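Q: What structure does this chain adopt?
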Amino acid sequence: MFSCALVSCFFFLISGRMDLSSDEEEVRTFIQVLSEKYNPENFPYGQGVVFLPSPPGSPDKGGLFLPSALVLSDSGIRKAGAGSDIAAVCAHVLELDLSFNQLSDWDEIGTIVSSIPHLDFLNLSMNPLSGVQLNPSMADVFSKVRRLVLINTQVSWDTVHTLTQHTPELKELFLCLNGFNSVSESPAACPSLRLLQITDNQLQDWSEVRKFGLLYPSLSTLVLANNSVGSVSDSKKTLEGLFPKLRSINLNNSGLSKWMDIERLNFFPKLEEVKAKGIPLLQSYSTQERRSLLLAQLPSVMFLNGSKVSEGEREDAERFFIRFYQDCPAQELSDRYHILVSKYGQLAPLAEVDLRPRCTTVNVRCGDRVETVDLRLEQTVGDLTKQLRALLQLQTSGIRLIYISQEMSSVFGPEELKGSSRALHSFNIQDGDEILVIPKSKSRCNSSD
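A:
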């Protein structure tokens, strides 16, 4: 029976072999960091590396295996170490996070990847790969990778194309923060790619975005947020052909400034999700106007800015769109306006509702003194008491307020305003009514000069 002691011994041998073969200043390697993080001596409760024995009678002798998802980020890794040592413990690793390390040589990265035969996810973000080219002869080691993250590596397009040409199962590619202001063409497309995230670059012209349709013809999700793309300038036929499978596009914080650019998104035949926050086109509208106007222009979109669109919301937005533009000159009305009018007909303007706090004017009587006072009906009896005590300069702390209605006092008599938290509108006070102020202790109202 194998034990943690055997596993610890294995890592000790690995570390010792690295020390004996290194005559230069210590350079942290992948296998060294691996042994430090996953050595069973660091996991007294059995976590980390485990030995998986083979079933009885199996020709396989078993082996040492790490967790299927390895996170070795921010560990100072510069080199791989011995590939055989990596292979001995990484046989069933599927995901590898090497972000924030010091890997600057594709040969070293290739040694690591070639020693992990079932690698599906690889994160190389924040490693210094600027100016470092990947030799096509060794790119086949990446052939099993399906999700590749190259954020802020300053990797070149030549290297990106080399990788995509040798990863026939690649589904997701992340190229954010790489300073791209253009897109170079490739002699071969990558038909397997479904998601491209290229946020926070410096793309401005739609002619560069157009190239993604040629490079990745099966693209389903395109994330262009935080680029300065200023337009969608292709024809319907071109857009249909370039992005035939595109279902989601993110244009947040782009430079779109014309409604025509939004209308052209309808030319993507499969599009059902759009994100378009923070674009210049929408700056002058309220939050509700932005959503309604966008939604009315995008009849096939089912998700807008991250929220699902209901049929009721769509109809409300389309009706709003008609009313919003119906007073514009005929020559300025878009095709979309006429389509919606044919659907709903000409709509009457909505009645304006004044939601400002209601006010009324009453006569306030205290002894021989009479004041005309404007009341805000959303205020409370307590608020009115304070207001009238200050207005009448009453020295007493307690007063009673008697409400006398012009219309109803002959039937119901005067009514005392009680309940300091009760709103005045609940008493149905009308213009011209009277409020009698009675001090609770001896005091008199100051007469006005």
